[in-house]
Input
Amino acid sequence: MDRTAYEAAALGFAGVLVTPGPDLVWLCGYRPTATAARLTLLVLTANAQPRLLVPALDRPTAEAAPGAGAVRVFDWWEGQDAYAAAAGLLRPHGRYAVSDATWALHVLCLQKSLPLAVFQPLSAVLPMRRAVKDEHEVARLAAAAAAADAAYEEVLGLRFAGRSERELAADLAGLLRGPGRSRVDFTVVGAGPHAADPRHRPGDRIVGDGDMVVLDFGGLRDGYGFDTARTVHVGEPTDEERRVHATVRAAQRSAFAAVRPGASCQEVDRAARAVLEEAGHAGHGVHRTGHGVGVTTHEPPYLMEGEEQPLEPGMCFSIEPGIHLPDRFGVRIEDVVTCTEDGGRRLNTASHELVVVH
Output
């Protein structure tokens, strides 16, 4: 909380305003149970104790949050103007960075209470605020990746042929939610021509012999994300399918080898694309090679052309090149990786082999 406040102050902001969402959880560990329509507001300013304004009925929950010992809690009661209460914690002429998850209703009502104040999106002010993880965060991400790997290993033992994508996706979600495991945000199973669609959602198509199958799954474990993809084949693959899979594996390795402190995000993206282009698949990749993973499964930094943000030790992100041949088949391999002083470290360790399933 202090680091966020001081970084904003250095950019000329009076403070940072955070409402329920991933930023609030990351900063002070508070997950309110009340509807987001009732104002909950964390106020961070340099040289002052963080202040948390909550509905009066939520005060006991707020005071039990992991970061509550570092926060001064205020409350407002039903019938009271919550925005007037919030205005009392702010500077009338201040410029504030507001968390992206904040409802427009709250921003507009704060603007009405403080007509001379200026509000800007936090992601535009401090886009990398959550990007560099400490050792405890990296450990949680590694545990989430290990749980995802374990679920993948289990799903390989299931029968694929003759079952629908939707059934297999449900099985995978069940394995991910197993004892002590995870909250599942998505389980993508794309078979045959559906594997060529990176936005595919599982449907009623029956998986058959000869299908390439992309498995892409993500969610949270202990508050930190996992996002993993592997590609399997029902029965023996053709030579072409093996070549395409090998190309994606090589692209993944090339991108991983490019991870080092000071390398730009687009350098990692270019390393993967160079392999795809050399193999004649320049137009068959995905829109970016990766994205940050933390308290959400998709956040900065983004590994894509034009992103010159340099990598720093502690940044954690996916590396997920793919080849998608429309109406035919597709291949995707995705790991979560962290940048260290010595280069990249894979948090996922499941094999990249093209596994034959039945």
Q: What stands out?
A: The mean pLDDT is 96.
